[in-house]
């Protein structure tokens, strides 16, 4: 079967709005798809879906489970007029599929498309198939946590949520999300001040697991450092806004400061100096610039109290960010990391969203403890949620061995066995159904969770050929 069937389903999936927590429409579409083809389908209260399809060959081997997640990380560029409810229109050039001004959703829409194309085919040889579509993977793997798979008979599990063709993942990090909260108290200044808005621009952003070791700038971390540089000057915070996701490296931030007129020149000079420092630090990995907008002087500015300004500044300076440890068991594997993803205010409640990851449970707990200490000292609350398990490497895996041998035979190049510093749902499958033989694979995706996201056309073609042959062998 030609891969255009996969592309057709991918475009359909992308056209349906499906940010994490908003999966009902895509879930209902999957259910209708299955019913139209007479396939056994179940949908739970969370909108997870399981579809079963009988083997297409006699005397087939054990059932195979295929799995991808329905949700996507939806982000868009500043100034982009895209309307979320309209879905994503897939664009293309000679080599890639992409979107304009928004994330594409190939993570994990391409897996959904592969599964639909397989389920829609009468010509692909395969054993009994059990296909799982989960929700809210991007916000803590909660779909995998809640779904009941006790009735599944499959012993071999193929997760299609990886992003490098020819790389077969057999282990992943566990993680936990955190929210640090400040119930902001404000005051009215009785002195004349000048509003100064600083917009952080140019940062690339990226996936907080895949890209955390690439030396990218984090807008929230840099904002905290800027505040610290201005700590001894007459500066008051009026507002802070750094929208984003816990599992995406923060790329945008804006802060409104009110400054004493007599120090305005020195403060602007300090901001310029700090911008130059950040640019020098990131010259090999990222870009950063400040856009300053000076407003009209005012005598009645509402600003954060000194207590809250200092607490926020201190917390942002102290919270670990980026890679905090590498594995000694797997070469070049990031073991433990921390990401600051969003800092936003609503009704005077300022919330910092963060994501902790580690392939070693005790080190994940250590990082969590550090956050707790910082939160107890400098915030009103520090909440932990969506604590998900890691996936341990298995020394014996017939599925892994067969998958690698087939890939190398088909494409004439060496496959790679790898561990990933990101949360895969495989940790839950491993725990829910002990003894499952699990691999994770997928086509080449680039810059996921960002507006530069794209997927390789050639790699989609390769993976489509490969999946058909792998299912044939497993049958």
Number of strands: 25
Number of helices: 11
**Mean of pLDDT:** 95
- Structural class call reads alpha+beta
Distance between the termini: 18 Å
Biggest β-sheet strands, sense, barrel: 6 strands, mixed
Measured as a percent range, the helix fraction is: 25-40%
Tell the overall outline.
Answer: elongated
Radius of gyration: 24 Å
**How much strand content do the residues show?**
25-35%
Strand order of the largest sheet: 1-2-6-3-7-23
Low-confidence stretches: none
Helices and strands in order, then pairings?
Blueprint: H1 4-14, H2 24-36, E1 40-43, E2 49-53, E3 64-69, E4 91-92, E5 96-98, H3 106-119, E6 129-134, H4 142-146, E7 156-159, E8 167-172, E9 174-183, E10 186-188, E11 194-201, E12 206-207, H5 219-229, E13 235-241, E14 248-249, E15 253-259, H6 264-281, E16 289-294, E17 302-304, H7 306-318, E18 322-326, E19 334-346, E20 349-358, H8 361-378, E21 381-388, H9 398-411, E22 416-420, H10 426-432, E23 437-440, E24 445-446, E25 454-456, H11 457-474
Parallel strand pairs: 3-6, 3-7, 7-23, 8-22
Antiparallel strand pairs: 1-2, 2-6, 4-5, 5-25, 9-20, 9-21, 10-17, 11-15, 11-16, 12-14, 13-15, 18-19, 19-20, 24-25
